[in-house]
Amino acid sequence: KKGSYDHFMQKEIHEQPHSLTTTMRGRLKDGGVLLGGLKEHLKTIRRCRRVVFIGCGTSYNAALAARTFVEELTGIPVTMEVASDLLDRQGPIYREDTAVFVSQSGETADTLLALDYALENGALCVGITNTVGSTLSRKTHCGVHINAGCEIGVASTKAYTSQIVAMAMMALAIGSDQISTQARRNAIISGLTSLPSCVSEVLKLDAEMKDLASSLIDSESLLVFGRGYNYATALEGALKVKEVALMHSEGMLAGEMKHGPLALVDEILPIIVIATRDACFSKQQSVIQQLLSRKGRLIVMCSKGDASAVCSNGSCRVIEVPGVADCLQPVINIIPLQLLAYHLTVLRGFDVDQPRNLAKSVTTQ
Ligand code: UD1
Ligand code: BG6
Ligand code: NA
């Protein structure tokens, strides 16, 4: 079943042009979006007081990546909940809320308990899942199957990118009654159409990421700085590295750098800075300057052709990625980090598909 690949994680990373295509199949129609599972509920969702995203692990990170464009395209306030934390706090959930549950397996215990809690509190419950017939799919009022195909590697890869794309389509569908954002929606729809080919292009960085991995093999820690659309990319890239390569790694909000993390910067600690083109680009340029002035060991991810714009003195290692619509850029940007985590794991001699102490689906609390 792995075909020509050595591991399922590797296969699943490389099949993303295909899995994203199946996620979108039959759903981008006549320049608009058609999600059969949400159609009847869009009016209710548009009237809700807020959207609450709920998930664990990579699925939480996918929801975080979606947060900004859901707010932008719908005008509805969005809050984020890690499922276990919502339960610990017994946080407020109301009838006027739309609670969106994100889970690859649809069987994660914490997420399902949070679903029971939200149902009891009367919220409209929406599922975003890869598993038809799962408990999450059955118990939610409505939802979207992401149709990424079975994911076997414990570290989620193709489900993450398909979750983001499914939520982008959801945001487009909810916002489709707004005339003021029509041009923006059209641009995102055309971005979705070109996404699989951009993903094929970014996968060509495989050898470069293997080489980067070999330079990081003995590092004790790796920081990843992102912001805006790519804050989630920083968290998810770091999660991949820690869960499979068993290396300490933290994703951080670049805007928080000077409020603590800057103290860690020296010539040894590798730091990845995500600085692809979007509204936050100039802020990331100044973050890079501040890190360089402290002699930070930088690896900068930037848009094609931007190497000298992000690092004029040539002292950074640069990863150049193809550009897509800014809100879809997280789908592209996570892929080099998935490849990095994969190669780092193989080079360090750890089990790629069954990382120590972890399970694909955590069905106990
Ligand atoms: C559905 C069919 C698909 C068919 C298409 C044709 C299924 C599972 N899907 O896809 O095979 O090609 O019509 O138009 O038969 N749902 C939840 N919670 C979730 C996810 C989904 O309640 O977490 C519900 C949806 O609201 C919907 C149903 O499950 O009622 C199917 O969802 P989905 O597969 O996303 O719908 P379609 O894309 O229309
Ligand atoms: C586990 C997996 O912790 O559950 C992670 O190891 C996953 O990869 C998390 O992100 C959530 O799983 P699910 O199925 O709810 O998306
Ligand atoms: Na359902």
UniProtKB/TrEMBL annotation:
It catalyses: D-fructose 6-phosphate + L-glutamine = D-glucosamine 6-phosphate + L-glutamate. Its EC number is 2.6.1.16. Pathway: Nucleotide-sugar biosynthesis; UDP-N-acetyl-alpha-D-glucosamine biosynthesis; alpha-D-glucosamine 6-phosphate from D-fructose 6-phosphate: step 1/1. Coiled coil: none annotated. GO terms for biological process: fructose 6-phosphate metabolic process; protein N-linked glycosylation; UDP-N-acetylglucosamine metabolic process. GO terms for molecular function: carbohydrate derivative binding; glutamine-fructose-6-phosphate transaminase (isomerizing) activity. It comes from the Eukaryota. It is an enzyme of class 2 (transferase). Residues 41-181, 212-355 form the SIS domain. The keyword Mitochondrion does not apply. The keyword Transport does not apply. Keywords: Aminotransferase, Glutamine amidotransferase, Repeat, Transferase. This is glutamine--fructose-6-phosphate transaminase (isomerizing). It comes from Panicum virgatum (Blackwell switchgrass). The lineage of its organism: Eukaryota, Viridiplantae, Streptophyta, Embryophyta, Tracheophyta.
